[in-house]
């Protein structure tokens, strides 16, 4: 580890204590980073230098979380991971450093707090949008197929808005107007669950700019209810 | 009218001076015989003529001269003369020796003076309005009116009184009504505020008419303005709505259809009256051409009206089995052929209306229903109970149409037909029977709203909105689809703070 030795002329106000602290913390952080890196390499693919789906699977079993569990998605969000199923070193470092986890155990213990953090409204919208982007595997891909969307909806919104999500998933599967869902519609789903009273939909106004798929959904629900 | 001789100034002035000198002597108490009536008249006429001669001989240097002259005459001469005239009139009664002609002339003068009054008064009232606070003006006005009334009443010109009083009133009051009323310190408002009962009563008493006139005039203007504003507002609202409607051609189509219905069914207008009277004539002269029932037909020119589903001319009986109706169609067809050989008639039964006298258990009721509904009901003249399939085969309508018609007859508020089973929708296995117990009192609470006009209107509005909502849903959907397209192509994006607003991205 290198210490920056250059000092500006005239500066003599650094005390020994802060110097010591700085050096200690930087030492510690360098140690931490080392451990994080080591952890990375324990899961990473030797040839690609990234953690691939296989590596993620073994990570999951180590932290005792199913790889379909939403918490992995949350981890990916924390890492700002770009490609689904893969973690780069940079992403790994970013995520684990933020979680202050440099061992598997610490990572496991950090998950409940991560969940809480994600569920905070300010973060959740960001996480929700991230979840969709994470599915755009091809370059220039803008929409996600209905099947995946349904799964994703269940994953990210299911715990909070079970009833709406279940019906929405049912509708999306039987309707034939849309074969894929784009980001705007995806965000519309969240706004819908968040704002519209259920199951009466009393405050839903189709004359506002809701995506058409939701207008159709509400119509379908209302027809079911009579 | 006799041409007046032009009086030269010098000549006239000399004459007047003589009169003035004489008057002075009278006023100074010197021994001077009083003016005779002729002398008064001559003086007055001279002065008047001189003042009102045509240019350049009218010696009125200013326009006020004329009035001034009159005023002088009145103040100096007229007032003095009043008593004499009055006495003369009394004398006339008593002694009947007074020269009637002279008296008549004098009286005429007074009437003419009345004309002079208005200009006189208009002048003084101008001054008064400017100077006087309202109550004072009113008092003066009142006095004037009183004086005039007295004067006139003395001279027995009863019609003159009306005219005179009216004139004075007009000059004094009407012309200045607004000003008077609005005079800040002393105008109407102030009087009301100050509870000045006397002043008010004086004012209101005399001003009543003028006030009414003024208020009516001002009110009419305001109403006109309000109507214009309302019309403008309506127009603005309509334009606003039109702007939001993206599929204007779709809207136009809907509107055309609605307008057509309105024109056809609005009984206050009668379209094609000429051709209807033509048809009536034809029926009168062709005794055997009677359909047996009253028929009125409106013929629409194809190009101008929206297109409707119509039935084939050759086989009207396919749609309508009712004999009377078939006969009607035949009769009119024959009549129409006498008028023109080159036109083809297509019958649009969906727009038709029938008045049917239906015999129910409780009483006979006249039903006003559509042609198709009437055709359905007519089937029940032959049989008591019919199944759905029987109805549809006899009438040859489409399933959708028939469902709608049967729905209107058996499920809505007025249940003319009883449906078995009593479900809320028409199915192919249903049976129908005429509801003999039908009465016009069988209305749901909804229809009683005609007694409560306000409720009815609100209901109407909400129903309209609902209908419109249903109609324009397709337009809104199309609009949204386009928005979606633009979003997915990244031309449009939503504002995160307000997802109902979009911004242009491209």
Structural features, described:
The complex is a heterodimer of chains A (about 230) and B (about 500). With about 230 residues, chain A is mainly α. Chain A has two domains: about 15-120, EF-hand (Recoverin, domain 1, Orthogonal Bundle), CATH 1.10.238.10; about 125-225, Cullin, PONY binding domain (Recoverin, domain 1). Chain A is built from ten helices and two strands. Chain A has helices at about 15-45, 55-65, 70-80, 90-100, 105-120, 120-135, 145-155, 160-175, 185-195, 210-225; strands at about 145, 180. The longest helix of chain A is centred in the N-terminal third of the chain and has 28 residues, at about 15-45. Chain A is elongated, with a radius of gyration of 23 Å. Residues about 1-10 of chain A have low confidence and may be disordered. Chain B has five domains: about 1-55; about 110-220, Cullin Repeats (5 helical Cullin repeat like); about 245-345, no CATH class; about 350-445, 2-Layer Sandwich (Ribosomal Protein S5, domain 2), CATH 3.30.230.130; about 455-505, Arc Repressor Mutant, subunit A. In chain B, helix 6 crosses helix 9 (about 195-245). At the A-B interface, helix 9 of A face helix 17 of B.
Helix and strand arrangement:
The complex is a heterodimer of chains A (226) and B (506).
Chain A (H helix, E strand, L loop, with lengths): L15 H28 L9 H11 L6 H10 L9 H11 L4 H16 L1 H14 L8 E3 H12 L4 H13 L5 E3 H13 L16 H14 L1
Antiparallel strand pairs in A: 1-2
Helix pairs in contact in A: 1-4, 3-4, 3-5, 6-9, 7-8
Chain B lengths: L8 H19 L9 H16 L10 H33 L4 H32 L2 H21 L3 H17 L2 H6 L5 H7 L2 H48 L3 H18 L7 H13 L30 H4 L3 H17 L13 E7 L4 E7 H12 L2 E3 H8 L3 H12 L6 E4 L10 E4 L18 H36 L3 E3 L7 E3 L2
